[in-house]
Amino acid sequence: MKKIILGFALLFGALQTQAQESNLQLKGTVVDTVAQYVYLQKFHNKMFTTIDSVQVKDGNFSFKTKVKTPELYGLSVNTASSPLYVFLEKGPITVKLNPKKYYSSSVVEGSASQDLFEAYKKSKDIEISKFITENPKSIVAAYVLYRNWSYRLSPEQIRQNITLLDKSLQSTTYVKELKDLALVLDGLAVGKKAPDFTANDPNGKPIHFYENLKGYTLVDFWASWCGPCRRENPNIVAAYKEFHDKGFNIVGISLDKKKENWIKGIQDDNLTWLHVSDLLFWNSAVAKLYGIRAIPGNYLVDSNGTIVAKNLQGEELQATLKSLLDKKI
Q: Is the pTM of this model over 0.85?
């Protein structure tokens, strides 16, 4: 693995990442679909927003849109589903766009950043600090720190890895948001006060978090579209049934986009506790307040609003509750 990453470091180490606005030289073919349009999408906060579209003619498409590069964009034939993640750069880039199996058979040529990104995805046992050190000027290094590692690291580790990035990356959105996240996480350590909030339940009724603090409360971040969340829900339901009468409560915070999906998820998984959501996906105000960058995620809070544990799952949740609730609250 070390040799693989070092090889890519030598190949891409000279990449300069100061974003510049220029016209794309992006063209390609669409295969295994009858789609009539290809959509160009901008990435921000784990979401993609369409910024341009072109018609497919005889299986071919071409974009000359003026955008900032190098940067991550999405290419899609259907804006309702996840796109092909592609790092676009200045210069000619060609794409074979195949929407089958989440674009897994698509091919991008002409983007060194994309080549590095693909190598990163295929690699295992990556050490993020080593990856950044070997690719300090690549936008990919800033992106994977932000997207794939921010939720695994302490505030101190986030800051340490930021310092490994080249100065040309320090003004990127990724680094700015990582610095903001580190500040938020500073205030969310065990022993600190959990942030108060007010958000609407499924009936549109405002729920004030601190007014519902009693015993121990799990602030549980989830969504109906989140597979790992749905697989963890039976464990949370079991914990609620066992410990609710002893003082265990839950406030579920959903990152759903559609109300009907949110309510169906609550009903299907038998989640019989308080639920709130602003239905803003990753723009959820409460998720931002709690520094949530991946779900499922949670904080266990006592009756005074003090954080006593975080990210409890599986048997660890049961064991922690048993330990706490065997004591007098």
A: yes
